[in-house]
Every structure is written in C-alpha cells, then in structure tokens.
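Q: Mind making up any chain with structure tokens?
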Amino acid sequence: MIDVADPAEVYTLFRFQQDCYRVLRDMVVRPPFSGGDVPVVMVGGSGLYVEAVARQYRLTDVPNNPELRARLQSRSREDLVAELQRRSADLACETDLTSVRRVIRALEITEYSEHNNLRYGEPAGVPLRFSVFGIEVSRDELRRRIGSRLKVRLAEGLIEEVRDLLDGSLSPIRLDELGLEYREVAAYLTGKKSKEEMVSDLEIAICQFAKRQQTWFRGMERRGTPICWIGPGDVETVLATVGGEP
C-alpha cells in the first residue's frame, strides 16, 4: 500500500478498503503463508480507515459532486447533520458527525443514491481476526511530539515537496483538498501566509486533527470495537494480546 495513488487522484475510503482487501487476498495464496494465517499490521492515525477495513464496512463508490459540495460548505455543521439524519438515518449512524467534511460526503452519497443505483465494494473474501492497539500519551506529550515532528518534517524537505507538486501538475485547489501540511505549506508558497504563520497554523491544525481522531477512537469503542490502550514501547502487552512471542 505504498505509492498506490497519484496525488492528483481523489483517493477515497472505498478505494482504500478495496485495495487493502486485494492485498490480503493476494497474500494468503503466497508462500510462506499459503493455507495458513497471515500476520498483517495496519499502522496509522485515521480510525475511520482502520475501522472500515477491520469491520468490513459496506461501502459504495460514489463520485464527487463539486457543485453540491460548494452549496453545502456555507451551511453550519448542525444544519448539515440535521439534514443527513432526516434523509439517511442509517448513514448518519455510520458517519463522524463532528467532521463537516465527513457529513458533506455522507450527504453527497445520499444525494447520489436518490437518483442512481449504488455499486458496493467486494467483501474481504478472507476471514479477518483483528486486535486494535492505541498508544496512550498525555495531551501535553502529544502536543510536544506534534511540534517536534513538524520541525523534523520541515527540515527534511516538506516545503520542497509541496513546491515540487505545485511546479508539477497539482493546483493550489487540489493541495487545499489534501489538507493539513499540503494546505498550509501551499498557502505559504502562494504568498497567502508568512512562513511563521504557516508553521503556527499547521501545528494548531495537526493538534486539532489529533483531537478529532481521539474522539473517533472513543466512538469505535462505543460501537463495539475494543481498543487495547498501551504505553509507548509496550511490546509485551501487544504480544500477550495476539498470542505471540518476543
């Protein structure tokens, strides 16, 4: 799952889930795992993507609707949530209602389904047994790590990476859609922000994103996905949970 999409492409949750399942189906027929269990580790911060694969969400491939998105962007989150709950209560139950972007996407799917037949993705096709681990750190420590990591990424060429994308085929609008680092660095490179403003705003945005992810993880637990919370470097608990050995 490295280098599977071009930055110009809209890489959806549907595509991510289906690509993961193709990889898993391919792995189970390869030596040395053919006919047996295949150990797979998914690492990342987006609980939605992890949950969609592990819980085998029934997803549909719905194209983007820029005109609809533009109309919905000006409305409040509360108004959008109310409309989603009215038009599709089932989808509202599966959507992160704290995220305006997710709610708009759910309304986009609802709008499409009212006029078209939905094409659903294929199930995993292989039995999945999974454990979810979350690394638990204090809020202050998390902020410190975010700030430290951002400094390292800037020093290692983040600005140059975004500049290369701008000099290539990607527009500032597409970089804005990619969010976080790409959005903020593009704003700096196009003269909308100073470097100091960019760094400050980006650190704040990443902290806000981390907070939303923590909210999602709590929701995962309420929806019946147990999360084993561990401390940094707590390998023993992981091995004991999955039945492995050092």
Summary: The first helix runs from residue 13 to 27.
